[in-house]
Amino acid sequence: MGADALLLARIQFALTAGTHFMFVALTLGLATLVALMQTRATVSGSAVHARMVRFWGQLYVINYAVGIVTGLVMEFQFGLNWAGMSRMTGGVFGVPLAMETIVAFFVESTFLGLWIFGWDRLNRWLHLGLIWVVTLTAYLSAYFILVANGWLQRPVGFEMVDGAARLTDAAALLTNPTAVLAFFHVLFGGFLTAGFFMAGVSGYHLLRRTAEVEFFRRSMRVGLLTVVLSVMPVVIFGGVQFAYVQPTKLGGESAAAEVARFTARFGPDEYMAPGLAGAGEALMMTMWSLMMLVAAVALVKLPFGGWLVRGRVFHVLMIVSVPLPYVAMVSGWVFREVGRQPWVVYGLLKTRDALSDVGSGTVVASFAAFTVLFGVLFVVNAWLLVRFARRGPEGAGLGASPPAEQAPVLSGTL
Question: What's the total number of domains in the chain?
């Protein structure tokens, strides 16, 4: 297959995986914040926190529902465009993906359904337990996905048998540092994303001088506190990962030695990381720096509740800061994934050898279909989030009791 088909297949996966990742980050963070708010409401009986659960929980459900579609469609690409990868590495790479689907995804979606439709029908403590199961299985799902990705970055716990990878050490696979550190990096990145999202939506309503001042003042405080507590762990877990970054991403003598080793074993190729990886790293660092500045401003504002309500410039700052974690995540993903080229499994399987043996026309058709589909899903999700966020807590339908059926009115007289 030609280089054009390979490039299109790579771009297609980049677009779909990057788009899906943005859904995942907000889902992880919002699920946690909603669970914490429901815990506060259940323990204390706070009416305002109960309303916060319904409002922010509805936005979480919207993002989760559309994100599920992007995740299911994205996985079709492995069989469609990357059959060579499935044949050679499916015995290892497929294990955490199967565990994510069976152990985490089905449990998460089942308990989320019970949480949504069990409102006011289940005991309040049981209902609280449901959202915590949803949250913890969301973490588990993210962990298994990063185990699979971590193996692509640093393959461990396997042996080659008849040209195919076979798992020999499940513990090594599950405790791979490139997976564990990435998991905590992504987890705190999700908290950061949800914190900025909550603060931005609250800032919008406070800027418009909403009547729900107490509701959005409390929501603003939750969002800002989440940002302040998450921004440093994100940087720390991101920085620690550099100890396991491939030498070809970092340059220097170690990169030259790695290139020489690959050349002797696999023949000449472009083994150094492409320039796009460096651009992704620079943009990621810039976004984290901006978020650190916003977090510093938030730390100053937090003790003064009146400023959170009256500070119109601060409200605008929080609104325009909502995209920062999204840009940082996507650019960091570019650094992590593009920098691995020309390998799909580092040092084991090249990207061009992982491609399916299909015609270029098939790749072009799937590229067009997937790009349009994911573009539509992204726009629909953004539109729904904006629409329901602008309505405020009075427009939250999650957990609302259905209107009582009216008794038929009999005409005439008895």
Answer: 1
Rounded distance between C-alpha atoms, residue 335 and residue 182, angstroms = 13
Residue 59 within a domain:
yes
Range of the domain at 384: 3-392
Q: Tell me how far apart the alpha carbons of residues 246 and 255 are, in angstroms, rounded to a whole number.
A: 8
Contact 196, 318 (CB under 8 A): yes
How far is it, in rounded angstroms, from Cα 3 to Cα 1? 7
pLDDT digits (tens, 9 = 90+) for 287-318: 999 999 999 988 887 776 677 788 888 899 99
pLDDT tens digits, 376-393? 988 999 999 999 999 989
In eight-state DSSP terms, residue 175 is T
How far apart (Å, rounded) are the C-alpha atoms in residues 285 and 176? 25
End-to-end CA distance of the chain: 84
52 inside domain:
yes
Asked if residue 198 is part of any domain, the answer here is yes
In a domain, 397, yes or no: no
Quick check: 385 and 192 in contact, CB under 8 A? no
* CA separation for the pair 337, 351 (Å, rounded): 12
**Cβ–Cβ under 8 Å, residues 206 and 216:** yes
pLDDT beyond 70 at 364: yes
Alpha carbon distance 133, 137 (integer Å): 6
Q: φ, ψ for residue 164 (rounded to 5)? A: -130, 145
Which conformational region is residue 180 in: left (phi greater than 0), alpha (psi within -120 to 50 degrees), or beta?
A: alpha
54 within 8 A of 120, measured Cβ to Cβ: no
Please work out, in degrees rounded to the nearest 5, the angle formed at the alpha carbon of residue 194 by the alpha carbons of 184 and 296.
85
Cβ atoms of 373 and 312 closer than 8 Å: no
Output DSSP code: residue 245: S
Among 365, 237, 351, which Cα is nearest to 3's? Answer: 351
- The H or E element spanning position 370 is helix 360-391
Element holding 227 (H helix, E strand): helix 213-240
Read off the pLDDT band of 344 (50, 70, 90). Answer: very high
